[in-house]
Amino acid sequence: MHPNTSLHWQDRDAMRAFVAELAFGALFAATPDGPRVAHLPVVWLDDATLGLHVARGNGITRHLDGATGLFVAQGPDGYVSPDWYGLGDGEVPTWNYVTVELEGRMRKMEHDALVAQIEQLSAEQEARLAPKAPWTRDKMDPSAFEKMTRGIIGFRLEVQAWRGTLKLGQNKPEAVRLAAADGVEASGRKGIAHWMRSL
User: Fold this and answer.
1) What is the pLDDT of residue 1?
2) 60 within a domain of the structure (yes/no)
3) Predicted TM-score (pTM) of this structure
């Protein structure tokens, strides 16, 4: 998290929506083998619990149950040239970004909860593809589905700490920030430019 408190994101509902929209991130944990990370999709099971699954063979998996996990969702980002501010000398390059860190206790799921989490994840993602008819596991051979789920382990991350950062040039006057957003967008980083304009 950025040390400047003016950049800290405090709105948990907005952070929750941001994580739900991305639905993907990196889960970090300290293990006896050293720090490990898994890149994976997530769903909200309730207002403070993420559901996720990890390949059984992933080096992080056997260490997760009962451990402290750190999930990081990274949104759009982009380089900001000082030339775009139009303020003359004294400005330096920077990087703007949006990110959320969720820290909490990891709990292994029972098999039925894992299946429910997979179904929730696919239903949420398939809904985004409308008007396409949604995929459901009914389209799979049941034995193939069973084999697939035996290769993964489901976990809950019970969130105990929320840390968000919105580094969008909010320390600059609005006109300067908007001018920088134009430059960022022209460089091909439309996502972060949108966030810079939406403050």
Assistant:
1) 74
2) yes
3) 0.94
